[in-house]
Amino acid sequence: MNKSERHQQILRLIDAAEVHTQEQLAQLLKRRGIDATQVTLSRDIRELGLVKTPRGYADLGKRSANFLSLAREFMVSAVAAQNLVVLRTSPGHAMSLAIALDTEQYPNVVGTIAGDDTIFIAMPDRRRALAFAAELRNLS
User: Fold this and answer.
1) How much of the chain is in helix, strand and coil states, percent to nearest 5?
2) Domain count, the chain
3) Digit-coded pLDDT (tens) for 43-88
4) In terms of domains, do 55 and 77 share one?
5) How far apart, in Å, are the Cα atoms of 53 and each of 35, 73, 92, 127, 129?
6) Which residues contact 84 (CB under 8 A, 6 or more apart)?
């Protein structure tokens, strides 16, 4: 099975059922005769632009979820630190927000680095970082 076929199977699985973990996804794929390692699934999830939501993995391209709606739901805090915005999320949701932010190509966002519950958002300068952090804090 090639990568394109595996990607199609992954999309079918997350459309048909709530898939919350890579392990669960691997088990579902295995039932369809597809063996995939955690490294492969992690890469597939990133390449497909899937995000983790309370209902499991979702295809950002097919859902109405965007960065601002995800931020409203999962953001804990946003603080400017020089030309960075440090955005804290509920556990496990930083990558989803970073992918959404990168996908939407927000103006003045130079790049993002995401962990489990923290995103560093690089901005061109301190002024823009302060403005973006304030905009994020005003979402609630």
Assistant:
1) 45, 20, 30
2) 2
3) 998 888 787 777 788 775 554 457 888 888 899 999 999 999 999 9
4) no
5) 25, 10, 9, 32, 27
6) 120, 121, 122, 123, 129
CATH of the domain at 19: 1.10.10.10
For residues 73 and 128, state if they share a domain: yes
Spatial separation of the C-alpha atoms in residues 41 and 10, rounded to whole Å: 9
> What residue has token string 């794929």?
29
Q: For residue 14, which of 69, 62, 67, 68 has the smallest C-alpha distance? A: 62
84: nearest Cα among 119, 117, 114: 119
Please tell me the pTM assigned to this model: 0.57
Q: Which residues contact 8 (CB under 8 A, 6 or more apart)?
A: none
Residue 113's pLDDT is 97
Over the stretch 28-41, which tens digit does the pLDDT of each residue have?
A: 999 999 999 999 99
Q: In terms of domains, do 81 and 121 share one?
A: yes
Distance CA 42, CA 38 (A): 6
